[in-house]
Predict the structure.
Amino acid sequence: MAPMPVNPSALPKPRGYSHGTLVGNTLHLGGQTALTADMKIVPGGIVEQFRQAFGNVLTTLREVGGRPEDLVSITIYLTDIPDYQAHGQEIGQVWRELAGPVYPAMAGVGCTTLWQPEAMIEILGVAVIPDDRLVAPEN
């Protein structure tokens, strides 16, 4: 089975990458920052950037019939781990609002900078989508 790119029209048009790659029923979700459709990083701090970045991940997941509970692994890259930790309760509330009470395997990794200099967070992941909900990408 050949890998298939997944690029939702609601997200910025990718150049040189894909928002996701579907192989069978496994979706590899490309790293998402807090980039909006108009190519701007949302202002306001780590909680707002988490909401946008995770929302971008979920947009890609839903493009092929996936749901938040299909996530099996998430990696979060952070430019300021103490800031993320200080806002952990708020970030947890955003997670539960967007994805419910289930958490996949997760890792947080500190880094000095991300692709967009104003980005504070980048989230990537892997999801396994049940065959009865899987939708082939349109792109």
User: Anything to note?
Assistant: The beta strands are 4-6, 20-23, 26-32, 71-78, 105-110, 121-128.
